[in-house]
Design goal:
Length: 277
């Protein structure tokens, strides 16, 4: 099922959830259905029900720890994250998930919050970067990033990563953390650049949503600076050092389930597991 279909499930007025035991052995289609139901519940904020389904799915198809070779791959391709000097939110967690059957790694990034959403009951801002690699020859074959509901394909980012030993450059949008691949200014024919300019104008004049919300106390009300400063991605936040220290690496196709049941003690907004749905 595609990500759009999953979001469609979220819009259903009600969702029936089986409460009886689920067999340990499930067909692929049954696992997919169970997972989609869990994510639909998660998106609706029905966290305990979602957690029960995630847990049942992972009983049937548990994640496994990476081999030494897989761990080395994750560290080798770990993206270089660059924030602006004025970024108000620290990085809370980095969780890497390798696809069990494809040469693809998801780097899940959890920032302290999104400056536009102090009230959303999600004490983090979940973003994702994916790196595809050649298992035979080595080297990056694809760089994809999550940017406000879109998945960006960074064509220029592949060549740039090759110049940095396979580690992609990722720019992180001030306060909102949309992940930008190298060459983002020309992605989608300049549409991402236009979106960034609109966001800059709003945040530097009107400021963020709910500026007077109690949970936004202490946050900057506006971005104070020029456009050049808004896109000054010059401060490195090294995901490799984070992963090397915390060893938060799993092998699974069920990213959100693993994050919920194995990795995080706080709620997060589920995002696509893989860049192709």
């Amino acid at each position: 099922m595609s990500w759009r279909q999953i979001v469609g499930l979220f819009l259903l007025a009600s969702l029936d959830v089986a409460c009886g035991p689920i067999p340990m052995t499930l067909q692929d289609s049954e696992r997919e259905t169970l997972y989609n139901q869990a994510m639909a519940l998660h998106l609706k904020g029905r966290l305990r029900e979602a957690g029960r389904l995630y847990a049942r799915l992972l009983e049937a198809d548990p994640p496994r720890p990476p081999t030494e070779e897989e761990q080395a791959l994750v560290l080798h391709y770990a993206p270089r994250l660059f924030v602006t000097p004025q970024e108000p939110f620290p990085l809370l967690d980095v969780i890497a998930i390798l696809h069990p059957d494809r040469p693809l790694i998801a780097y899940h990034l959890f920032w302290e919050d999104d400056i536009d959403y102090p009230e959303d009951q999600e004490p983090c801002d979940h973003e994702v970067v994916w790196v595809a690699y050649d298992p035979e020859e080595g080297g990056v074959t694809g760089v994809y990033t999550y940017y406000h509901g879109q998945i960006l394909d960074g064509t220029e980012a592949v060549a740039e990563a090759a110049r940095h030993e396979g580690r992609p450059w990722i720019g992180v949008q001030w306060g909102k953390h949309g992940s930008l691949p190298y060459g983002w200014e020309t992605v989608q024919g300049g549409a991402v650049l236009q979106n960034m300019r609109r966001t800059y104008r709003r945040l530097s004049t009107e400021g963020h949503r709910l500026r007077n919300h109690p949970l936004a106390a202490g946050w900057p009300a506006t971005f104070v600076g020029t456009w050049e400063e808004f896109v000054d991605f010059s401060r490195l936040v090294d995901s490799r050092e984070w992963l090397r220290r915390e060893r938060t690496i799993f092998v699974s196709r069920w990213g959100n389930a693993v994050l919920d049941q194995y990795a995080l003690r706080y709620n997060f907004h589920p995002k696509p597991d893989w860049p192709d749905g």
